[in-house]
């Protein structure tokens, strides 16, 4: 399939090269942005149209813009990497495109064709390739998103939408290497329920998690973990990451995709890599009381979370109103570190890619 054509409107006042170099020395995460953005419009009358790369800047929105009232919005997250040979690559962007379409279906929004999704990202990265940080763990974090842009106050799917991609240079998520985080078990709030939007990557899911995340911070924890909405017993996911449990026999368990948790691309990649190495991976329900019992008995030796931003994050301690328990030594485990190393090596073109996951371009 040929790449779609994007009209390019160069930013008339880009960040000066010396200032960009200064900023990229320590980009942090999610606070620094590149010169351009991708944009495509959709309407009932025209379908997808007006695809372009333009200067990144504020959006002019009417106070009655539908998304401000009914939260019809979806997004994705992926990264562009600079490879050792100077090329640029994305990691499994077709999976992000698929999940974006599935999120759109759930939120009664138009489905963006995969070639437009990937083409918009390629076009933006090519325009702002100089913003990819040249440092260990550096990448260009990409945020495609779409929202209802029609001006109206009726409760119905909108007839106009705006799709955009913005880019944010990012360093390593945790400076000095991955640390083991402490997580808080939410016993009052739930993230999603059967029949809800848990499997869609929409802003409302994250908005609903923030009060629980704030509670976790007050309790001295880094992240919150949610239990199922029906029984308040089964472990589901963190506010934005999937969970894995490693046992003393070398096997791994991760909660199943039942419609209430996000089908993570990093999650699926780790399952594939683990099974290739002969590790038994079971997608099955795992209870919070069993988690504690297994950790205390030594049967559970590692727990880790995974997602696009931090890739793989070890979990060292779990706290709740009933107390706390430590997993293994309380630090990163061997299987956790090995899977992370294998995955990041493939992402950055430093190891063979038998699955064809690395999407090179430019």
From TrEMBL:
Keywords: Amino-acid biosynthesis, Aminotransferase, Branched-chain amino acid biosynthesis, Pyridoxal phosphate, Transferase
Short name of one Pfam family: Aminotran_4
Domain of life, per lineage: Bacteria
GO biological process, alphabetically ordered: isoleucine biosynthetic process; L-leucine biosynthetic process; L-valine biosynthetic process
Record-level Gene Ontology MF annotations: L-isoleucine-2-oxoglutarate transaminase activity; L-leucine-2-oxoglutarate transaminase activity; L-valine-2-oxoglutarate transaminase activity
InterPro entries: Aminotrans_IV, Aminotrans_IV_CS, Aminotransferase-like, B_amino_transII, BCAT-like_C, BCAT-like_N, BCAT_family
Leading EC class: transferase
EC number: 2.6.1.42
Keyword Amino-acid biosynthesis applies: yes
Catalysed reaction equations from the record: L-leucine + 2-oxoglutarate = 4-methyl-2-oxopentanoate + L-glutamate; L-valine + 2-oxoglutarate = 3-methyl-2-oxobutanoate + L-glutamate; L-isoleucine + 2-oxoglutarate = (S)-3-methyl-2-oxopentanoate + L-glutamate
Stated name of the protein: Branched-chain-amino-acid aminotransferase
